[in-house]
Amino acid sequence: MKYDVVGVGLVVVDHLVVLAEHPDQDTKTNIISDAYQVGGPVPTAQVLLKRFGKQCAFLGSWGDDQYGPLIAEDLATENLDLSASRMLPGTRSGYAQVWIDEQAGTRTIACYRPQHWLPPSELDETPFRQTRAVHLDGWPPETSLQAARLARQAGALVSLDTGSLKPGMPELIPYLNVMNCPRRFITEYLQTDDVHAAGRKLLAQGPEIVTITDGTRGAWLFTEAGCLHCAALPVLSLDTTGAGDVFSGALLYAILEEWPLKRVLQFACVTAALKCERLGNRDALPSLAEIEAVLQTRAPALKAINN
């Protein structure tokens, strides 16, 4: 195979703004520091995978505004194959303002999603026949669905990082092998806060593996054989931006390595937790050596739960 992972999804420029604490409405506060970075669930996961030694191609688009060159240069520098991506003339790139509360280690995001996307009819089908896996974030819905169909036709594994609820989820989920979602997604999509009931319902819709993440409460992994829960690794959290993106990338890496599911879940949890100890999503990405050291010395607790 030419690629380990082909990614299709949203790419944005994040403007990270660090504040001492979130201000009240209609007040002012000082900025401690700020920085620009390229983000998006799929590109961030793919950068992690590439740094872990996987071959990755990103299929996406950006505008010809001031952020377009930054996106193209950043992803090229990370050695993602961009041959099937392109700049769309006369359009705006994705953009997000990320307010990081330094005291709490939390973030609030206001984002602009592009109004123009790489349409399904313009997806290059060749990469889907040359990859082991396809990773999606559900944006744009029609393009994600077409990508999932092409991947399944080619026999590739299909992975989705849901993030928040998006249009087209009922149509997309049956094509999935792996589905990762934050706890808020199950509330939005299934109108339940029962993690175990949600895991079973999502499995019934098609995926073979479902993970549900919940910050300091850890994460759950569901298969037809049962459920695993991994406690959260205690860390001094500086910035949670991209933690779910990193969890999804690490999850996919561990699955492609064909590790036992207990190690798969622990690896993803530790990788996401270590990312939160640093600001941003590039310098913050941990190395394989850092993750392995934690797994050997202070691995978070695992518990098997019968479905």
UniProtKB/TrEMBL annotation:
Superkingdom, natural source: Bacteria
Domain Carbohydrate kinase PfkB span(s) in chain numbering: 9-286
Gene3D superfamilies for this protein: 3.40.1190.20
UniProt GO molecular function: ribokinase activity
EC number: 2.7.1.15
SUPFAM superfamilies, per the entry: Ribokinase-like
Alphabetical keyword list: Kinase, Transferase
Alphabetized PANTHER family for the sequence: KETOHEXOKINASE, PHOSPHOTRANSFERASE SYSTEM TRANSPORT PROTEIN
Protein name: Ribokinase
Lineage of origin: Bacteria, Pseudomonadati, Planctomycetota, Planctomycetia, Planctomycetales
Gene: rbsK_1
